[in-house]
Design brief:
Elements: E1 2-6, E2 9-12, E3 17-24, E4 33-38, E5 45-50, E6 57-59, E7 68-73, E8 78-83, E9 92-101, E10 106-113, E11 117-122
Parallel strand pairs: 2-11
Antiparallel strand pairs: 1-3, 3-8, 4-5, 4-9, 5-6, 7-8, 9-10, 9-11
């Protein structure tokens, strides 16, 4: 399985970025997928997951609800993360991964992920 994240970069506080993740080597359209991030020196943090048909979205944290929007294009084996109203604390490496059901929703399962894409938000 290979996941390739892209779209990161430098943004100003309040700005936007759109991340992409293309997955190969697995039947992407059958997977619940999501995003997580890891800031330097901190543990990884789940962001959001989306089911295979796009019908259910679960945010790992209320702090990202309304600012981050996940979507997918199964025909292109690609997952997206639209990030708006960026804050300096959003600075981190962002990764896409598979998700699994955990009692009250879908959360990152970390069975595979790529090299990540760096997002840096300046104040």
């Amino acid at each position: 399985v290979q996941a390739v994240e892209s779209g990161g970069g430098l943004a100003q506080s309040g700005g936007s970025l759109r991340l992409s993740c293309t997955v190969s080597g697995i039947h992407f359209a059958r997977l619940t997928m999501g995003w997580f991030r890891q800031a330097a020196g901190k543990k990884r943090e789940g962001i959001v997951c989306i089911t295979d048909d796009g019908g259910t979205v679960t945010y790992s944290s209320d702090s990202m609800t309304g600012r981050f929007t996940i979507s997918r294009d199964n025909a292109k084996n690609t997952l997206y993360l639209q990030m708006d109203s960026l804050k300096p604390e959003d600075t981190a490496m962002y990764y896409c991964t598979d998700c699994a059901w955990y009692s009250d929703g879908y959360y990152p399962d970390y069975q595979f992920y790529g090299q990540g894409t760096q997002v840096t938000v300046s104040s």
